[in-house]
Amino acid sequence: MGTCWVLCTLLLVCGISCINGETPLLSLQGTANSYAAFSSLSVCPNSQLTLNFKSHLPNGLLAYMDYENNSFIQLKLEGGAVKLRVRLSNGNTLKLSTGENLHDWRWHKVSISWSQKVTQLKVGNSFQTGSLDFGSAPDAMVPSNSLLYVGGLPNLKVLILEELSLPTVYYEPRFSGAIVNISYINCSSTPTITAPELLSYDGLRTSEDNQCTDENTCENGGRCLNTNNGPYCDCKYTSYGGANCSVGECDQIF
Predict the structure, then answer these.
(1) Tens digit of each residue's pLDDT (9 = 90 or more) over 212-229
(2) Which pTM was predicted?
(3) Cα–Cα dist 48/185, whole Å
(4) Coil vs helix vs strand at 168
(5) Which of 52, 71, 108, 142 could cross-link with 67 by S-S, CB 3.0 to 4.6 Å?
(6) Is 16 helix (H, G, I), strand (E, B) or coil?
(7) Rounded to whole angstroms, how far apart are CA atoms 22 and 194?
(8) Following DSSP, what letter does each residue of 225-254 receive, concatenated?
(9) In the chain, where are the structural domains located?
């Protein structure tokens, strides 16, 4: 019995699958504790971040990396499009958006590529570029103890909100779906594609099937989440409650 087979079996029990020797597939529930943490990504000219995702929901945090000096990378689904927000340690900022209707439960490849003055966000054949000047510092965003968070952030017992460069990221809707094949090109004189190390995770599923069909759609803007216990309606971003987000605030009082 090979070592790789044993490792993949252990990961599968925790809701993580191995695909063709690439970075493990993460099936994220999107619940309040759902996230995964990977080893850090350093950003400079010629660096790159790539991942594949599929989801049935239009909104959710795909990835977040926090650096020193109030710099960060935020990648998210919003309104069915992929949106990137970057702030460098030199104060330069950039926002990009591309793609549409990407919450179709199909696989989509996302890549972010940095050069000295231009950043590109690409999803499939759709892309947008923008000006982001690293200036004279070639290592404008090199992390110290930071991690790349995927799908959401850990709870506040692990995380200190005030220390985040973008505190509002904690309140972004968590990603519900699957993410696989995360890869980096880190700052190096000889750029090489590497797979980051999975360091911690929570709120993962043991399968990647979509349980949120028309028959169990949540009402009043509730988010249907795929969980290990079946479809679950998240009413957090509504003023309703109940199993299907159909109970109004006044109804709940009485």
Answers:
(1) 876 667 899 888 988 888
(2) 0.84
(3) 5
(4) helix
(5) 71
(6) strand
(7) 10
(8) EEETTEEEEE-TTSSEETTTT-EEHHHHH-
(9) 3-202, 214-253
Give the whole-angstrom CA distance, residue 242 versus residue 184: 42
Cβ atoms 41, 196 nearer than 8 A: yes
48-98: pLDDT as tens digits: 999 999 999 999 999 999 987 788 999 999 999 999 999 988 888 999 999
**Structure-token pair, residue 154:** 């850990």
Cβ atoms < 10 Å from Cβ of 90: 14
Is residue 15 over pLDDT 60? no
Contact 15, 204 (CB under 8 A): yes
Tell me if 179 sits within 8 A of 53, measured CB to CB: yes
For residue 10, report the phi and psi dihedrals to the nearest 5 degrees: -65, -40
Residue 98 in contact with residue 110, Cβ under 8 Å?
no
Q: Could you tell me which residues are beta bridge partners of residue 191?
A: none
Could you tell me which of 200, 214, 208 has the C-alpha nearest to residue 227?
208
Domain 214-253 fold is Laminin (2.10.25)
Strand-pair partners of 209: none
